[in-house]
Amino acid sequence: QMCIRDSVKARLEQMLKDDHASGGGGVTNEQLKDAFGDEFDDLPAIINELINTDRMELLQGEGRTTLAYQWIPEDRAARLGELTNEQRLVLQVVERADTSGVWLRDIKSATSMQQQTLNKALKVLESRKLVKTVRSVQQKTKKLYMAYDLAPTREVSGGPWYTDHEFDHEFVGAIKKIVVKYVQSVQTSTLDEIHGALERSGIATVPLSVADVKLVIDTLLLSLIHISEPTRLR
Questions:
Q1: Most buried pick, 22, 72, 74, 119, via CB within 10 A?
Q2: How many other β-carbons are positioned within 10 Å of the β-carbon of residue 113?
């Protein structure tokens, strides 16, 4: 019986590892039923064991319609080891916030913890590189907490136009010059072609999307209208 259980456990672990390696969104109960058939009834005890030893976690909450299980890589499992219940609770709240981050007051509200206990939990989570703080360009004096491995949304970071939470006028100006020079050299151009020209220039240290380029072109067009209008009115 133990040999069969070990075989089922090994197959489950491999299924979870394959999902994680492919960047999947976790393995659902339906997928487990299809894969294990009659052996599905053996899974609950194995799943509990993997969760309790920090090798698997439940994916649930905002944006998810079904419960799923996800493999925890060894390096993350080591960082999760020996966390207290309070620290795990805080981590769950932060991770649920995803790339938008969460304010300290909202963590406190969700956990009902004393400030001192919460501060200690966050300090431990930061030291283990499970949680990090970021500053929002909209409220620079306040810190947001988010999962260590995530990048903040553009609403938080300001996107490529911000450096150290300040609007980078010099960078935007350089982008505009390249756009104008390119358009003048080819006379007519599509948005995708301008985007390609900017990528080839190597000016941006962060990826620029087509939407980012469109924003620059829109501001250039607005400035041209602003300049030409007084002349046209004379």
A1: 72
A2: 18
Instruction: Quote the CA–CA distance of 46 and 78 in Å, as a whole number.
Output: 20
Under 8 Å between Cβ of 151 and 99: yes
Q: What is the pLDDT confidence band of residue 82, given thresholds at 50, 70 and 90? A: confident
Q: How many CB atoms lie within 10 A of CB 98?
A: 16
Residue whose tokens read 């609770």: 89
Burial class of residue 130, CB neighbours in 10 A (0-12, 13-18, 19+) = buried
Question: 131-177: per-residue pLDDT in tens?
Answer: 998 876 666 667 888 888 877 666 665 566 666 656 667 877 888 88
| Greater model confidence, 67 or 87 | 87
Q: What is the mean pLDDT of the chain?
A: 81
Nearest-angstrom CA–CA distance, 161 and 165: 9
pTM for this one? 0.55
Provide the sign of the torsion angle of the four alpha carbons 106, 110, 113, 117, taken in this order.
Answer: negative
Under 8 Å between Cβ of 149 and 125: no
Residue type at 133 in one-letter notation: T
pLDDT for 232 equals 41
Would you say 204 and 219 are in contact if contact means Cβ atoms under 8 Å apart?
no
Q: Please count the other Cβ atoms lying within 10 Å of the Cβ belonging to residue 63.
A: 6
Alpha-carbon span 43 to 8, nearest angstrom = 8
Q: What share of the chain is helix, strand, coil (3-state, %, to 5)?
A: 65, 10, 25
Q: Which residues pair with 163 in a beta bridge?
A: 166
Residues pairing with 145 in the sheet: 102, 133
